[in-house]
Design goal:
- With 47 residues, this protein is an all-beta fold.
- The chain has no helices and 4 strands.
- The protein has a 4-stranded antiparallel beta sheet, with no helix packed on it.
- A hairpin with a 5-residue loop joins strand 2 and strand 3.
- It is globular and about 25 Å long.
């Protein structure tokens, strides 16, 4: 089972996928996880 990352967390550099709609979000090393730009969901998994 993949770890769930929530909006506001700093999971580190990588590509993350919305658990609701599948939208991918690319983050840098110091970026905070935003809400999903497509559906506003707050949970992601690492791609």
């Amino acid at each position: 089972m993949k770890k769930v990352i929530k909006t506001g967390e700093k999971p580190g550099r990588g590509c993350y996928v919305c658990t609701n709609c599948g939208q991918e979000v690319d983050l840098g090393a110091r970026d905070k996880m935003p809400p999903c730009p497509r559906c506003s969901n707050n949970e992601f998994t690492e791609n």
